């Protein structure tokens, strides 16, 4: 059995939800069973039916939370979203870069940069371009611009935000965060670096191999200071694990 999971926060209801999708390995069809768990609800796992998209990829990536939904790339390169409010699946429009890749490779990854859902396209071993999903403005009869609801993705469009051509020779640079000065933090295998969009230059920040020689590669995740007590949310079966120090 293969399991795909996602965790997200819904500000409109102040709820934290866990989504899990499991696929039976002995079945030929890629049909997954969907379950949702709301922290503190005391209702346990709720069945939400089936999903016909296969989210089991040869390079699995965690679900990406943006715009009140969890997002995955399926094995055919489609962007699948699970709306945490309606608890339904949506298929997002594809960015133009999806039409440029070879079907034999898988050069895309979802990220959140600057609060926007982004697609990182690895054009080759040392360069990537980044596309972000942004809302369109629709002019009403009174002359005012109105932005439609979050889940009406026909009013959204993909914008090519920036390109990275690493001068460090970093292989497959993967952006994961933006600094307050507009620089891009990216990692490549066991190296963490910074890219200046204005000067198009890179600076190596940390070489993980100095601290973990056996580390072949790693994934960088931006830290958000958002500690939440499970007991405060209403979870009864919780344990506090003390540190070993």
UniProtKB/TrEMBL annotation:
Residue ranges of domain F-box associated beta-propeller type in the record: 3-140
Top-level taxon: Eukaryota
PANTHER family in the cross-refs: BNAA05G37150D PROTEIN-RELATED, F-BOX ASSOCIATED DOMAIN-CONTAINING PROTEIN
Protein's recorded name: F-box associated beta-propeller type 3 domain-containing protein
Lineage of source species: Eukaryota, Viridiplantae, Streptophyta, Embryophyta, Tracheophyta
